[in-house]
Automatic annotation (TrEMBL):
PROSITE patterns for the chain: PTS_EIIA_TYPE_4 (PS51096)
Protein name in UniProt: PTS EIIA type-4 domain-containing protein
Keyword terms: Transferase
UniProt entry tagged with the keyword Transferase: yes
GO cellular component, one term: membrane
Keyword check for Transferase: yes
Pfam families: EIIA-man
One GO biological process term: phosphoenolpyruvate-dependent sugar phosphotransferase system
Coiled coil residues, start to end: none
PTS EIIA type-4 domain location: 1-106
Xref: InterPro entries: PTS_EIIA_man-typ, PTS_EIIA_man-typ_sf
Length: 128
């Protein structure tokens, strides 16, 4: 996910990625992020996870005992991009908008719908 964001945005120095493929256990990821929070307690942290109720998500929720931590499940690249490009300063508002956009951007396309869309001649930017 981070490599895709970097391809699109370029500089993503303020984004860190932690995966079980590297860190093997949710507790290791939890400890790394907890250390960052303790080192920079005035920063806000938005933690994205892949699966609601998954092992990493469940462990990260424990970090919400800090008032500056948000945990968001069902991460998509669009969510990451929207958060990074947001101009709003209120993190809670940005997250709410990001989640609403994600819901609207989740579509089922089949043969009939695809043909209708093509026949309507929609521009790419209208689809996205």
């Amino acid at each position: 996910m981070l490599s895709a964001a970097k391809m699109i945005l370029g500089n993503c120095d303020d984004i860190d990625a932690y995966g079980l493929d590297t860190y093997k256990e949710p507790k290791v990821i939890f400890d790394l992020i907890k250390s960052k929070i303790e080192e920079n307690p005035t920063d806000e942290y938005v933690l994205f996870s892949d699966i609601l109720g998954g092992s990493v998500h469940s462990k990260l929720i424990e970090l919400c005992n800090h008032t500056n931590v948000y945990v968001v499940s069902n991460m998509t690249l669009a969510m990451i991009l929207e958060m990074k490009l947001a101009t709003e300063e209120n993190t809670a508002k940005i997250l709410q908008h990001t989640i609403e956009s994600s819901k609207k951007g989740t579509l089922i396309m089949n043969h009939t719908k695809a043909l209708n869309t093509i026949n309507q001649g929609l521009e790419d930017d209208e689809l996205w």
